[in-house]
Specification:
mainly alpha; 75% helix
């Protein structure tokens, strides 16, 4: 029973550190935020910070890895044993819905990372994680597939960024509906409606 209390305290401390760090990034930027700033904002001492993380880059790496892992788990649950070419519209919509809900549950993190004060290469990491997931087990990287995949993933990450920065005005369902239409129809036909 004593072990559960320790685990709960560790979780609470890590949550406080994470929230303090993200708040400071939004106000001061990543580069100007110090360990002492994080400790003060989280109401812990510096030694407590170092019990959980090696340094500021380690904290950033942990948060990024954790958040991207949650997204790929969403896709993995949906398309686990599916051939990437056999994914139908219903499965595509369901996967996007789970992914956007995971982002929405962690919107503070994603909004911070994708803001101008956030980590400059986070969108690239997001793209690479999605690409790795889609390509898992598929070693045939012909040029046409590479170009197509880059086009699709870049567009998806661009839409995620757009939605995150304007999530109050753009409903998830609407974004998913449009993504599905784009994915399963000719893009040129959709652009004619503009």
């Amino acid at each position: 029973m004593g072990k559960d209390k320790v685990d709960l305290r560790v979780l609470k401390t890590r949550k406080a550190i994470k929230e303090a760090f993200l708040t400071l990034i939004q106000t001061k930027g990543y580069e100007r935020t110090t360990i002492q700033d994080i400790a003060n904002k989280a109401m812990i001492n510096r030694n407590t910070f170092y019990l959980h993380y090696v340094d500021k880059p380690d904290l950033m790496e942990n948060l990024c890895h954790e958040s991207i892992e949650e997204l790929t788990v969403c896709f993995n649950m949906e398309v686990k044993d599916q051939d990437i070419h056999a994914i139908d519209k219903e499965l595509f919509i369901s996967s996007l819905d789970k992914m956007f809900k995971a982002i929405e549950a962690n919107i503070f993190f994603f909004r911070t990372m994708l803001s101008q004060n956030g980590q400059s290469n986070f969108s690239i990491r997001l793209k690479e994680a999605l690409k790795d997931f889609i390509l898992s087990g598929n070693e045939d990287h012909n040029p046409k597939m590479k170009v197509g995949l880059e086009y699709i993933i870049s567009g998806l990450v661009g839409v995620i960024c757009m939605w995150i920065l304007d999530s109050e005005h753009l409903a998830v369902e609407e974004v998913i509906k449009h993504l599905s239409e784009i994915h399963f129809n000719n893009v040129l036909d959709l652009l004619k409606d503009i």
